[in-house]
């Protein structure tokens, strides 16, 4: 069976100068992120079209920047939509700051990577004492032991 060809989406340049957000800085020219989706989405640099993330799913990356390994332009994954939960136990939080990457990061198909801003947004939405992480279906009910 022929593998499906991925959809290409651009990762846009930031609208404003962002200094605190997490930024991945690859020191190589391979894609920064690689997923497991058959087909899926290839995210490309909004400036030069170099592949930033390949074979990933939509809704996996929020609120962090990537310096394009080719043209050195900062591009940013968009904000977490209001009310969208970050999956419990499946979210990699990228703390503010720059991270040098010497190799492609492999990401599971259901893993979400999010900058700290996205996590702070979730904490605000849940109120004090709320949990930043959850599943879209709400809290899972544990099956009784047999
Ligand atoms: Zn580029």
Gyration radius, rounded:
16 Å
Question: Which of globular, elongated, flat, extended, rod-shaped describes the shape?
Answer: globular
Strand tally, please?
12
Structural class: mainly beta
Helix content: under 10%
Give the N-terminus to C-terminus distance in angstroms: 42 Å
Strand count, sense and closure of the main sheet? 5 strands, mixed
Kindly give the count of domains: 1
Ligands, ions, cofactors: zinc ion
Number of helices: 1
Listing every helix as H and every strand as E from the N terminus to the C terminus, the arrangement reads EEEEEEEEEEEEH
Strand line-up across the major sheet = 1-4-5-3-11
Mean pLDDT: 86
Low-confidence stretches: 137-143
Tell me what portion of residues adopts beta-strand conformation: 25-35%
Give descriptors for this structure.
single chain; 146 residues; mainly beta; four-stranded mixed beta sheet
Structure write-up:
- This protein is mainly beta and 146 residues long.
- It has one domain (7-126).
- 8% of the residues lie in helices and 32% in strands.
- It is built from 1 helix and 12 strands.
- Strand 4 and strand 5 (51-56) form a beta hairpin.
- The chain is globular and about 40 Å long.
- The N and C termini lie far apart (42 Å).
- Residues 45, 47-48, 50, 68, 70-71, 73 line the site of zinc ion.
Brief write-up:
The chain has 146 residues and is mainly beta.
